[in-house]
Design goal:
Pfam families: Glyco_trans_1_4, Glyco_transf_4. The chain is globular and about 75 Å long. It is 42% helix and 14% strand. The chain contains 17 helices and 15 strands. The protein has two domains: 27-268 and 458-489, Glycogen Phosphorylase B (Rossmann fold); 278-456, Glycogen Phosphorylase B (Rossmann fold), CATH 3.40.50.2000. By secondary structure, the chain is of the alpha/beta class. The chain has a seven-stranded parallel sheet with strand order 4-3-2-5-6-7-8, with helices on both faces. Strands 11-10-9-12-13-14 form a six-stranded parallel sheet, with helices on both faces.
Length: 497
Amino acid sequence: MALMDHSNFHCLCCLLFALSTLSSISFIYWSRSSVPCKPEPSLLLGGELNRTLNLLSYPSAWNHLSFSPEPPPRLLKIALFVKRWPHRSLAGGLERHALTLHRALARRGHEVHVFTTSSSSNHTLPNYPNASSMQFHQTPPSPAGYLDQALAWEQFRTQNATGRPFDVVHTESVGLSHGRARSIAHLAASWHGIAYETIHSDIVQDLLRGPGEPRPHPALAERIPKVVEEVKFFRDYAHHVATSDHVGDVLKRIYMIPEERVHVIVNGVDEEVYRPDAARGEAFRRDVGVPRNASLVVGMAGRLVKDKGHPLMFEALRQAFAESGGEEFRDVYVLVAGDGPWGARYRGLGPNVLVLGPLEQARLAAFYGSLDVFVNPTVRAQGLDHTFVEAMLSGLPVAGTRFASITGSLIVGPDVGYTFPPSVESLKEALRRILADGRGVLKEKGEFARKRAVRLFTARKMAAAYERLFLCISRETQEKKDGDDYCRYPIPGDRPV
């Protein structure tokens, strides 16, 4: 057993050495053309108001910029490639991002063509109010369940030759393969998780393994070739949108993509849906059976699976309810929205844990309104979970795992909420801090979190940033047929602060 532990430790050391070497090589390569460490956006803007910025080399999230709310100066024909289109509550973060963003762009008047797979459930795609310029082009999925590249490409070519050509092409992750993307200059790929981030997730998962529990597959050492593969093919995409500040930094330093091709736009959600509504929240509490004497209502939402941290949360709650004779957490209630194998386990914790199943959007908004604090215990470092932003817009403080993407973009300080290392003890301690702070402090944090989310993470803010990026990299702009340089900031109508 000792020999096995020594071997595992040796493998981990080799892995960390390889990562360090890759990072060092990337830094040497990149330092020839990079700018100094990026300053705080507020400090940068404060010194730049009197001169024009080049958006393509802007080092921070575009969410910090205030683009014109007026109707767009030019309407674009946009092609979107996405593996699946969301259906009701059956959607991950990537699909929800695709829907929220492109519905907002269509409402702005842009012509949006969605190339995606047809559903096996025989449901019809909905008609979206005020977004009639969205057109769907579906193909049967490939045998592996992905978007059939050959069929989707043929549809794209047909639409590109119909009327006017596409002004810009957008792919959600590898919705459009890099082999086909490399020939398109007016293209942007949004990344909702990259292989480099999975290494952190794998380290956490390995550290959390119980005695005798097998190591997850693929093993840590197998991740390095996947990172190298991504470094090689990411260069085929003309422009990259990182959905967190951390990923933007990794794409520049580790993946060695020139800074003028990497743009950070943190995901936003619909601010008309997710907003404070005390009456709606109180009604939801009554509906699901939360008693009036509850001292604290904690909520979680999403897939109830292992990599979302539910084994940790389950054990932390089990111990918290059992310790001190159950007195400390006697009046604490936990609401769990979502579906997955850990739902049944949560039900076994007793009457203080209410498992609600998956919720439609309107019910989910009411769910957030019923909470005092929202907790996301994920042990998956890839991407940014939309539930954080939904909760913040709903006026809640948020608690999340101390991953770089979360602390770098969302929970940037204690005014917004709480962070914790991924362990049972740390999660229990975070719950105790939340309980000790009480509703007064939680309300203050929630108000601060909402102000930050309204300023940075609304669907309107996200759509404005993507619209400007698409105008900047569009076919007509690149061919210099446009009189305005949309790659500058500010231009008339922008509202720099």
